[in-house]
Amino acid sequence: MSRLGEILEHNKQFVHNQEYEQFRTTKYPDKHMVILTCMDTRLTDLLPKAMNVRHGDAKIIKNAGAIVSHPFGSIMRSILVAVYSLGAKEVFVVGHHDCGMTDLCSHEILDEAILNGISEETIDILRHSGIDIDEWLKGFSNVADSVAQSVSRIRHHPLFPKDVAVHGLIIHPETGKLDVVVNGYEVIESTIT
């Protein structure tokens, strides 16, 4: 059976047995928070447990590296929607040690794309059409710096409210230990005084 077939068969039983009941909640986060974190599979269950976040407590946004790479991209839009439409009052950017984006070079991905049938001509067309594909696919060298940069991009966004705390954290993907990179409360206090 295909993976899709397995999923659909499981889903049929899930719905039939009403297992969804344990997941009922509203679209509004109970703890009024939004979390931007990495898509790393090690964090799927670990991060909510380590942060004491249960189902319905937070809006969780995931991407490669927990990076806000563009001020008007889908990550920033999701954060703004969470704050203005869904009642989030704090933002947590949570990177992690041993991230796959650490020291990632665009050529590694582009070489794999070529091996998977993407022509060099297509890549050249993208490069010559004003898309900085090499910068877009590049990772970071230091997770703390990357988290701090994403926090800064959120805080300084022209549509982001100045009284909403934006915190930066790093989680250890094996132990769940959290280290603070940016305390958003302190940043707000320093801008008030």
Automatic annotation (TrEMBL):
<feature type="binding site">
    <location>
        <position position="40"/>
    </location>
    <ligand>
        <name>Zn(2+)</name>
    </ligand>
</feature>
<comment type="similarity">
    <text>Belongs to the beta-class carbonic anhydrase family.</text>
</comment>
<dbReference type="GO" id="GO:0008270">
    <property type="term" value="F:zinc ion binding"/>
</dbReference>
<dbReference type="Pfam" id="PF00484">
    <property type="entry name" value="Pro_CA"/>
</dbReference>
<keyword id="KW-0862">Zinc</keyword>
<protein>
    <recommendedName>
        <fullName>carbonic anhydrase</fullName>
        <ecNumber>4.2.1.1</ecNumber>
    </recommendedName>
</protein>
<keyword id="KW-0479">Metal-binding</keyword>
<dbReference type="InterPro" id="IPR036874">
    <property type="entry name" value="Carbonic_anhydrase_sf"/>
</dbReference>
<dbReference type="GO" id="GO:0004089">
    <property type="term" value="F:carbonate dehydratase activity"/>
</dbReference>
<feature type="binding site">
    <location>
        <position position="38"/>
    </location>
    <ligand>
        <name>Zn(2+)</name>
    </ligand>
</feature>
<dbReference type="InterPro" id="IPR001765">
    <property type="entry name" value="Carbonic_anhydrase"/>
</dbReference>
<feature type="binding site">
    <location>
        <position position="99"/>
    </location>
    <ligand>
        <name>Zn(2+)</name>
    </ligand>
</feature>
<feature type="binding site">
    <location>
        <position position="96"/>
    </location>
    <ligand>
        <name>Zn(2+)</name>
    </ligand>
</feature>
